[in-house]
Design brief:
The chain is α+β, with helices and mostly antiparallel strands. It has helices at about 1-20, 35-50, 80-85, 155-160, 170-180, 195-205, 235-245, and strands at about 25-30, 30-35, 55-60, 70-80, 95-100, 105-110, 115-120, 125-130, 130, 145, 165, 185, 210, 225-230. The strands form three sheets. Strands 3-4-5-6-7-8-9 form a seven-stranded mixed beta sheet, with helices on both faces. A hairpin with a 2-residue loop joins strand 1 and strand 2 (about 30-35). The structure holds D-MYO-inositol-1-phosphate and calcium ion (CA) (2 copies). The site of one calcium ion has 6 residues, from strand 4. One calcium ion binds near residues 80, 171 and 194.
Length: about 250
C-alpha cells in the first residue's frame, strides 16, 4: 500500500537526518536556510517515490516548482523545521503528502529524533505510530495554542484565550500536535503548501479542521494564514486572528 511505501521512505530519510556528519549550510534568504541533508533527503524521496509511481508529479521545497497540477503526485517537505535541525533541536520532521487531483489521500510526518510517525490515509483515521489519535476534548482556556514567530499577532492575544502560547518551529509537527491532542490549536502565517499538506489530512482524520483566517476551509492552493483546531472552537481562533489584524 502507498502509505507503507511512504512510511519506509520517511524512516530512511529519518536515518539520514539522525546520522548526518557535519552540515553544509546555505542561506536561501533572510531567516531561511537549507542544508545538504535537506537536499539529499529530497533526492532520495523523489527517486524512491518515483519508482513506486512512475508518472507522479513532485512539488518539493528544495526544487523549482510549477503550480500544483491535477493527477497523482507528492508534495514533500524533506525537513520541516530546518532551523531546529541545524541547531540540534530535536523538533523537525520528514513530510510527505500523496495527492490526487489536489486532494491528499495519504500523509506521513515523521520526527526521527523521537521516532514519532504521524500518519493517515483518507477515511481510515489518523495515527501516531500504532495508536489512533484524536483532537483534544478540552476548552481552549485549558489548552496550549501553537503559533509561529511570523504570525502578526502578539502572544498576549493567545494568552488571553488559552493557557499559553508555544512556537515549535515546525508547522507540520504543530498541526500533528493539534491532531493528537497535545495542543488545542495552531495559528500560522506565510506557509507554503509543503508546510501543511501532510498535516492537513492527519488533522482532518483526527477530527480537526484546517481553515483560512476568515473561516473558509484551507486547500493546497495557497492559504497564507491558517488555523488548525477543533470544529467547535473555530470561532475562538477566527476571533484571535481578527484581533491580530486590528493591532
Ligand atoms: C518552516 C517551519 C516553520 C514556519 C516557517 C516554515 P522549514 O519550514 O515550518 O515552523 O514558521 O514558515 O518555512 O523552512 O523549516 O521547512
Ligand atoms: Ca517547511
Ligand atoms: Ca523544509
Amino acid at each position: 500500500m502507498m502509505i507503507d511505501i511512504m512510511k519506509d521512505c520517511a524512516r530512511e530519510a529519518g536515518t539520514m537526518m539522525v546520522k548526518h556528519g557535519s552540515l553544509q549550510i546555505e542561506a536561501k534568504g533572510a531567516n531561511d536556510y537549507v542544508t545538504d541533508v535537506d537536499k539529499e533527503v529530497q533526492n532520495m524521496l523523489i527517486e524512491k517515490l518515483g519508482q513506486a509511481v512512475p508518472d507522479a508529479f513532485f512539488i518539493a521545497e528544495e526544487k523549482k516548482n510549477n503550480k500544483l497540477p491535477d493527477g497523482e503526485g507528492f508534495v514533500i517537505d524533506p525537513i520541516d523545521g530546518t532551523l531546529n535541525f541545524m541547531n540540534g533541536i530535536p523538533c523537525s520532521a520528514v513530510c510527505i503528502a500523496h495527492v490526487t487531483d489536489k486532494e491528499v489521500l495519504d500523509a506521513v510526518v515523521y520526527n526521527p529524533f523521537r521516532d514519532e510517525m504521524f500518519w493517515a490515509s483518507k477515511e481510515q483515521g489518523a495515527f501516531l505510530n500504532d495508536q489512533k489519535i484524536h483532537i483534544a476534548d478540552r476548552p481552549i482556556k485549558k489548552a496550549l495554542v501553537l503559533t509561529e514567530d511570523t504570525w502578526q499577532g502578539h502572544k498576549e492575544i493567545i494568552r488571553n484565550y488559552a493557557v499559553g502560547a508555544r512556537i515549535l518551529g515546525s508547522a507540520e509537527l504543530a498541526i500533528c500536535f493539534v491532531a493528537s491532542g497535545r495542543a488545542g490549536g495552531y495559528i500560522s502565517q506565510s506557509l507554503h503548501m509543503w508546510d501543511y499538506a501532510a498535516g492537513k489530512l492527519i488533522l482532518e482524520e483526527a477530527g480537526g479542521i484546517l481553515l483560512e483566517k476568515d473561516g473558509s476551509h484551507a486547500c493546497l492552493l495557497g492559504p497564507n494564514e491558517i488555523i488548525a483546531c477543533a470544529p467547535d472552537q473555530q470561532d475562538i481562533f477566527i476571533a484571535m486572528c481578527k484581533e491580530a489584524e486590528g493591532r
